[in-house]
Amino acid sequence: MSRYSPAEIEAKWQQAWQEANIFCARRDEARPKYYVLEMFPYPSGRIHMGHVRNYTMGDVVARYKLSTGHNVLHPMGWDAFGMPAENAAMASGGHPKDWTYANIATMRDQMRPLGLSIDWSREFATCDPEYYGQQQALFLDFLEKGLVYRKNAVVNWDPVDMTVLANEQVIDGKGWRSGAEVERRELTQWFFRISDFSEELLEALDGLDDWPAKVRTMQENWIGKSRGLQFAFGLNDGPDGHDRVEVYTTRPDTLMGASFIGISPDHPLARQLERERADVAAFCAEARKGGTTAEAIEKAEKLGFDTGLTCRHPFDTAWELPVYIANFILMDYGTGAIFGCPGHDQRDHDFARKYGLPIIDTFLPMDAEHDIEAAPYVPLKSERVRYTRIVAGEEAQTGEAGVEAAIEFCETNGVGQGVTKFRLRDWGLSRQRYWGCPIPVVHCETCGVVPEKKENLPVQLPYDEGGTPIDFGVPGNPLDRHPTWRDCACPACGAPALRETDTMDTFVDSSWYYARFTAPRAETPTDMAEAEYWMNVDQYIGGIEHAILHLLYSRFFARAMHICGHLPEKAIEPFDALFTQGMVTHEIYQTRDVKGRPVYHLPEEVTEGRLADGTEVEVIPSAKMSKSKKNVVDPSTIIAEYGADTARWFVLSDSPPERDVEWTASGAEAAHRHLARVWRIASEIAQTPGEADPQADEALLREMHKTIDEVTKGVDSFGFNAAIARLYAFTNSLAKSQAGQAAKTTAARTLAQLMSPMTPHLAEDIWSLLGGAGLVATAAWPKPDPAMLIDETVILPIQINGKRRGELSLPADMDKSEVEKAALAHNAVVKALDGAQPKKIIVVPGRIVNVVV
RNA sequence: GCCCGCGUGGUGGAAUGGUAGACACAGGAGACUUAAAAUCUCCAGGCCGAAAGGCCGUGCCGGUUCGAGUCCGGCCGCGGGCACCA
C-alpha cells in the first residue's frame, strides 16, 4: 500500500478493535470510571451529519478518557417510540414496529463504519418490551409513591383524528394532519407530579457548574418562580357556595388601581353560572374554542363577558368591581382569577377601553407627566415613583422591594398573604396513541383504577387485531378499538376489566435511558450496584433544542427514581456536565418559479452559480439541512468517498463545537487531503533513514511537547477546532523538519496519538506503520515534558506607549532589570526617548515590554 | 414585552488584559509535468510607499488601564429562548 486508503484501513482497524473487545465496559472498582453519553437518536430512517458531529464529539471524549486510564462507558441506543412511525404506517400501510426496527437496522449499519468506540453490547431501543416493561414497573412505583396521578385537564383535541395533539402539532388552530379545528377539551389524564419539585429543580440548577449557563437560565425561566399576594375579593350576591373570588397577583402594589375582576371560563364560579344561565354558557363555549398554542392565543381577540356580579374591594368594601369572564385567563395558573389594573398593565388597559371600565393610577412617574387614559404607566424595574392613592404623595420603589412592601402592608391589614408560585405545571403524560409505552393500569367497574401487577409486565402492545393487521388508516387510537387487547382481569378483584389504552408521552422513554444503560439487561429498571458505580453521566452531549423538556424531565425522573430506590442519591442530578453542540448546516440553492415561490436545487445541478439552462441561482448560506430544501449531505456518501476519518475530522475542525458548522465540499476535500498528507509523511518517515541532527531534533521535539500540551488542553475543554489547528501546524513543522529518523518517528507517533480521538483509524495505521506497540486506542496518552515547554530564548515584543515598535530575542530566564536594560538599548526606544528618562517600564516576563515615554 | 447570547479579513475562525488575524477554505504567483491531476514553494486585513517603513484597523460612542477584540457604561445590528403567566 503506497497511498492513504481509508476504505482499507478503516475496515481493518475496526475489526482489530472488535477482536480486542476494548470498548466493552465492565464494572472495575480499580479504575476510575467515565460515563460519556450523547443524546440517543430517533430512528427516523437515515443518519445525518448532525448525528455524525454529535457522536464524533462524544467519541473524542470517550477515546481520550480511555487513553488516560479511565474505565469508559460509551453506549448507544434508540429513542424508538413516536409519531413518525405511526404516520409512516398511515401513509404506507405498514406497521410502526416494522418501520422502526428496519430504520434502526439501517441507521446502525450507517453508524458502525464511523468507528465509534461504542459498547454495542448495551444497545437497546425504547420500544423493546424489555425496556418499556421496566418503564411500566417504574410507573407503578411512582404511582405507589404518589409521584403520578390522574386528573382532568384541558387539552388540544383533534375531533377528526380523535386524539390529543401536542401544542407543536396545532397549526393556526387546526390539527396539522386532519386540518380540523382544534377544540379545547377536558380529559382525564395521567400527570407526573413534577411541580412538587419546582423549588428543588430550581435550586439545584446552581450546582450544575458544568452546564451551559444558557441552559440553566432557560430552565430557570421555565420553572418560573414568582412572588406575590394571594387574597380574596368578597363577592356580592354570588350563586350558592360562592361568596368570594381568590386572586393571585405579583403586583399587589397596584391593588388600589383595580377596576374589574376577571375569571377564567373554566373557573368554578364561571362553571356554576354556565349551568344556570344560557348567555354565560354561550360565551364560555366560544371562549374555549381555539387551541392553547402561543400562536392561537396571539391571534385570539381578548373577549370579556360582564356577569353582572360585583366584588368588594378589600380596602374599601363600598368600592364595587364588576366581575367579567375573560377568554385570556388561564385556569391552571395562579387561581384562575385576576384583578384588572388598566392603569399599569397594557392588556388590562386594552380591556378597560374596550368595555368602558375606569382607568385608575396608583402611582405616577416622579417628575414626568403621564396621561393614564392614553396609555398605562408601567414603571421600569426599581424605578422610583410617587403614590397617588392610599399613601398619596409618598415616594416608593417599584420592583421587588415595592412588591414586598405591599405584601407586608396587605398582610398587616388582614388582606391575604404573600405566596410563592411556580409556572412549572405537572407533566401530562397520556397520549391517545398506539406507538408508545402502554400505561400499565386497569379500569375495573368495582375497584376503579387499579395498577397492573408487576408480574404481568410488560403490558405489551398488540401487533395485530386478532389475526388481521392493525389498520393505521382509521382515525383514533388502535388500542381503543382492538377487539381483545383491552379485555383483562382486574388485578384486585379478578372481575373482567378494561386496560388503559393511553400510552406514555415519548419524553418518558428518554427520561431514564441513561440509567438503564448502566445495566441494560437487569430484571429491574436498574441494578443499584451498577448504577452506584457508573452514575452519573460524566459528560452528556446533545442539541440545545432539548435544553428544557428532556433535560428537565430527566432531572425529575432521576429524583423520582431515587425516591423509589432505583438510583443512588448522588444521581438525582444525573448529568454532571452538559455540552450542547451546534448543527451542521449547508448552503441552499434556490430559484423562483413563475409565481415567485422558491424552488430548491441539489448541489450537483448548480455550476458556477447557474443551472444547466443558465438560470441564476441564489445561494443561501448556513441553513439547517432538510430534505425539502435539498441541502442534505448523506454521511454514507461521504464515508464512501473519503472515509469516516475525513467526515469526523471535518465536522470537528471548522467551527467551535457549540456553534453551527457549515458543510462545504471544499472543506471536506481539504480535510481528506490533509489526512492523506499525514499518512504520506508518516509512511515516508518509516521508509527514509536519516541521521540525527541535534539542533533539528531538539526543535522538533520541543514543538511536539508544546503540541501535546495544547491539544490535551483543547480536547479537555471541548476546544476541538483549536486542537485541530494545532495539529495542522505541527504537521507542517514535521513535514519541513530536517530532524533525523528517530526524532521524526517519535514526533509522528505522537501525532498519531494526538489525532487518534478524532481520526482513530488513520492513527492506528500510522502507529503500526511506525512500530508503535499494541493499539493506539489503548496506548497511554502522551504527557508533555514541562522542561520542553519552556524555550531558552524568547522573542519579546517591545512596545512604546502600548504600541509595538520592535522586538528583542532574549534568554527566557533573564532578569527583569536586564530585560529593562536591553529594552532601553533598543533602537526604537532610544529614538523615542531622545535622551529623556522613560516614565515607566513594564516588563511582563516572557510576554512583553512596554516603555512609557 | 421579558430573559439570554453574539458582532474580528472575501469565508470559517484563533487570541489566561500583553506581537490581532494562528489554523483552514476560497484566491493569486511560481516549481515539477508534453499536459493535466497530485504534490511542493511563496504571497495575501486596509491605505501610503519602489523598499525600509509609516498610518489605520476586532459593529458604533465613551470609560478603566502602562496596555482593551478581551473589563465597564451607553447605542446600533443580528440570533436564540420564553410569554394572554395575573
Can you give me a brief rundown of this structure?
Helix content is 36%, strand content 21%.
Describe the structure.
The longest helix is centred in the last third of the chain and has 23 residues, at 665-687. The chain has 853 residues and is of the alpha+beta class. 36% of the residues lie in helices and 21% in strands. The two termini are 65 Å apart. The strands form ten sheets. Strands 8, 9, 10, 11, 12, 13 and 17 form a seven-stranded mixed β-sheet that branches. The mean pLDDT is 90. The chain contains 27 helices and 36 strands. Helix 1 (6-20) packs across helix 24, helix 19 (644-653) packs across helix 20 (665-687) and helix 20 packs parallel to helix 24 (760-769).
Spatial shape: globular
Number of DSSP E strands: 36
CA-CA gap between termini: 65 Å
Helix content: 25-40%
Q: What is the oligomeric state here?
A: single chain
**Sheet bearing the most strands, described?**
7 strands, mixed
Compute the CA-based radius of gyration.
34 Å
Taken as a percent bin, the fraction of beta residues is 15-25%
> Which structural class fits the helix and strand makeup?
alpha+beta
* Total DSSP helices: 27
State mean pLDDT (0 to 100 scale). Answer: 90
Poorly predicted runs are none
